[in-house]
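re: ur question from earlier - yeah i can do the single chain one, its not a big deal. heres the input i used so u can compare w yours
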Amino acid sequence: MPELEYPPSEEARPSPRMATVHAVARVLKAAAASDEPPLSLAEIGRRLPAKRVRHETLRACVNELKILGFVTEGSKGVLWTLAGTKALSEPGYAGL
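and the output i got, formated as tokens:
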């Protein structure tokens, strides 16, 4: 029987806990609700309820939220961009 070839192993990337992703999302939503400019990763880390969160973990959280389409990242920082879904809950909404 021939030996199985496994795909090359990737370097271990930080995998944030779901609670951390939700905490980052809450911070960004609150900033968007009060019309603040984009937040840097350092500012997001300062506003989190946890005492310390590693920069890699914050970066991974922002990347997850960016993949899902909740945030936009630019040279000035990260901004919550997901709009509310009031139209979806209204009666008679036909969709796209």
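The two ends are 53 Å apart (CA to CA). not sure if urs matches, ping me
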